[in-house]
Design brief:
Elements: H1 6-15, H2 23-35, H3 38-54, E1 56-57, E2 64-65, H4 71-74, E3 79-86, H5 89-98, E4 103-107, H6 125-134, E5 139-142, H7 148-162, E6 169-172, H8 188-196, E7 199-200, H9 201-210
Helix pairs in contact: 1-2, 5-8
Length: 211
């Protein structure tokens, strides 16, 4: 597409780099911003820069936070002996919306995916192991998406955690979630029941061996 302005072409190119946004949507957004008062565009630009430069990752759970330790990890009313392992912040938000989970989290920052070049060393697995070794963790819930990569990551974590001198109970969310479904898109009721009806991870291994 030929644009009447190099500046318009530049902003469309940058916006279209965002996930799920094509050139046409990027053009529509760019033209919308052009029609707004300059202070609104400046406010958006400032918010983006503050978000990018000032956002922190909780030093305990790796969740996105405004402070060194996130609000969930600071909350003494939560069960800090129960750790739910998730892929990213979107999964924390999905589980929190259910209102059923009262433990804390550990955000991996992704899942193992050989096709995308993501290995265990790219994730915050070592920090999870350190938490278990240094804190009184009684149970770890593996709450990863029901996909091939999610299952691969679950099994890797199970092998790593069961080999620790002080090994916590390891469970996984019940498969009320369809195989292949991303956790963040699961409805709140199904997700809440999956957390409540979690099962020991080793039982899922036995069921696979029997198939």
């Amino acid at each position: 597409m030929n644009y009447p302005s190099k500046l318009l072409n530049e902003i469309v190119d940058e916006i279209s780099k965002l996930p799920g946004i094509g050139k046409r949507t990027a053009l529509r957004l760019a033209l919308y911003l052009l029609k707004q008062p300059p202070e609104q565009t400046q406010s958006l630009a400032d918010a983006l820069l503050r978000f990018r430069n000032d956002i922190k990752y909780c030093k305990i759970c790796n969740n996105i936070s405004d402070t060194e330790v996130c609000e969930i990890c600071q909350d003494n009313s939560r069960d800090h002996t129960l750790v739910c392992v998730v892929e990213d912040i979107r999964d924390v938000m999905a589980i929190e919306k259910t209102g059923e989970y009262k433990g804390v989290y550990h955000v991996l920052g992704g899942i193992i995916s050989p096709l995308e070049g993501i290995s265990p060393s790219d994730l915050s697995i070592d920090r999870l192991i350190q938490r278990i070794q240094n804190q009184n963790i009684r149970e770890v819930i593996l709450a990863l998406s029901a996909t091939v990569d999610g299952d691969t990551t679950n099994f890797y974590l199970y092998r790593k955690l069961t080999g620790l001198p002080v090994s916590p109970e390891i469970s996984t969310i019940a498969r009320g979630i369809s195989v292949g479904e991303e956790l963040e898109y699961t409805d709140e009721i199904t997700l809440a029941r999956s957390i409540q009806n979690r099962v020991p991870f080793n039982k899922t291994l036995k069921s696979k061996d029997n198939n």
